[in-house]
Specification:
This protein is α/β, with parallel strands linked by helices and 468 residues long. It has one domain (12-458): Amidase signature (AS) domain (Amidase signature (AS) enzymes, Alpha-Beta Complex). Helices cover 37% and strands 15% of the residues. The protein is built from 16 helices and 15 strands. Strand 11 (262-265), helix 10 (276-287) and strand 12 (295-298) form a beta-alpha-beta unit. Helix 6 runs parallel beside helix 7. The two termini are 20 Å apart.
Length: 468
């Protein structure tokens, strides 16, 4: 197997090949590092690449294989962590001059679990400043380019992870999602991304953002996401929101199918603007479910109608917690983030709590919807990738900070904490990827993964690679 093929080989396959000594951890890690050296200048997926540390971990993994010791499920397989999470000894700079030079001294729980499972951590992938936006740039790291179109948006704060997955920088990439930041890079970059049930994967330090942030995988295949989820998920005492139940055996049960499920399809959730080409590709993808043994019905979900107003209030208020940075860093911060923070000035605690009460009613309406439906299919994002220097596509209304206008399908499931995934479902006439969103009821991560796997089998995508 050539080096390029090693870089695009799924984690599940690599792990088996490493255990059987068909390939070595050193060989696979070196191949990925060589590809990063050759290609990442066109992508800019890494905020911090730890080539020396990765090779040391790979050599240790190889010694364990040769010594006949116990091997974890990800033994010798390379992985990355987004630069909003801590990996001991590596920077956690959050795409911002406000955190420049900060080095983590401990692993966040899911990173510790990846290492314990044998994964080789390559480094930290880029994020928008403090994770604030759906556009792949930050003042500290610049533009992360979409592997399918240089200069275009790779999508949201997990853009480095999505771009790395698409570009063949190894198979496993962790992302986080507060309003779509796993699913949007998956959509824009043509890979798979799962935002699991809130609390399924621990999040520490616990974010002060009203329980919207979720950790999950960005991968080229659903099977790899299932494998990564099994390792990362599970209760962690430092995150008091983590679920008590251990994760299901996602990998073993992935191919059970979804026959008999009730599946709803909404092209716009009753309010979202969607570009025609996106809507057409998603509608065609929905047709594939008819062959998967499920009932599909087009619906308009009866979620509370003021959701779009609520998310804009909540998002700007939560970003407003960074306002103390303005005195020192305003001129070095993303102007859109500054505008977002400034919109929250003067809001009272009483006003925030009143809006939060309305948000809780919205969450109830989402959960009531899933009492009648097993899954909901929608577009993942309303637009295809656009130039990354913009906050909105040129044909969309301008706004000083509101990127959420083209991401109306994402945040409802951050509010509700229910699982949702983006699966590749085609390309625009300009060759840009498009994602179909599969959302499920709370705790039904396995069902969402099974639906994604069934769709992947019906409409394969992992063989498609960007022309880097």
């Amino acid at each position: 197997m050539g080096d390029t093929e090693l870089c695009f080989t799924p984690a599940a396959t690599l792990a088996a090949m490493i255990r059987s000594k068909e390939v070595s951890p050193v060989e696979t890690t070196r191949a990925v590092l060589d590809r990063i050296a050759a290609v990442d200048g066109k992508v800019n997926a890494f905020a911090a690449l730890d080539a020396e540390g990765a090779m040391a971990a790979a050599r240790a993994a190889e010694a364990a294989v040769m010594g006949g010791g116990a091997l974890g499920p990800l033994h010798g397989v390379v992985a990355t962590v987004k630069d909003l999470a801590d990996v001991a000894g590596l920077p956690t700079e959050r795409g911002s001059y406000t955190a420049k030079g900060k080095i983590a001294d401990v692993d966040t729980p899911f990173a510790a679990r990846l290492k314990a499972a044998g994964a080789v951590i390559l480094g930290k992938t880029t994020t928008s400043e403090l994770g604030w936006t759906g556009v792949s740039r930050s003042p500290l790291t610049g533009i992360t380019h979409n592997p399918w179109r240089h200069g275009h948006n790779a999508g949201a704060s997990s853009a480095g992870a999505g771009a790395a997955a698409a570009a063949g920088f190894g198979p496993l990439h962790q992302g986080s999602d507060g309003a779509g930041s796993i699913r949007m890079p998956a959509h824009f970059c043509g890979v798979f991304g799962l935002k699991p049930t809130f609390g399924r994967v621990p999040n520490w330090p616990v974010p002060n953002n009203d329980q919207t942030s979720h950790n999950g995988p960005l991968t080229r295949t659903v099977a790899d996401a299932a494998l990564m989820m099994k390792v990362m998920a599970g209760p962690a005492p430092l995150d008091h929101w983590t679920l008590e139940a251990p994760p299901a055996d996602y990998s073993a049960r992935l191919r059970e199918g979804i026959s008999g499920l009730r599946v709803a399809y909404s092209p716009d959730l009753g309010h979202a603007r969607v570009d025609h080409e996106i809507a057409t590709l998603v509608a065609d993808a929905v047709k594939a479910f008819a062959g998967l043994g499920v009932t599909v019905e087009e619906v308009t979900p009866h979620f509370e109608t003021d959701g779009p107003e609520l998310v804009r209030f909540m998002w700007s208020t939560q970003m407003g917690t960074y306002a103390p940075f303005l005195a020192e860093y305003r001129d070095r911060m993303d102007p859109g983030l500054v505008a977002c923070m400034e919109e929250a000035e003067g809001r009272s605690a009483a006003e925030y709590l009143a809006v939060r009460g309305r948000k809780l009613r919205y969450i109830e309406s989402v959960n009531r919807f899933f009492q009648d439906w097993d899954l909901l299919l929608t577009p993942a994002v309303s637009v295809a990738a656009f130039p990354a220097e913009r906050l909105q596509p040129a044909h969309w209304p301008e706004h000083p900070w509101d990127w959420i206008s083209w991401a109306e399908f994402s945040w409802p499931f951050n509010f509700s904490g229910t699982p949702a995934a983006s699966v590749p479902c085609g390309f625009t006439k300009d060759g840009l990827p498009v994602g179909l969103q599969i959302a499920g009821r709370r705790f039904a991560d396995l069902t969402v993964l099974q639906a994604a796997a069934a769709f992947e089998q019906a409409r394969p995508w992992a063989d498609k690679r960007p022309p880097l």
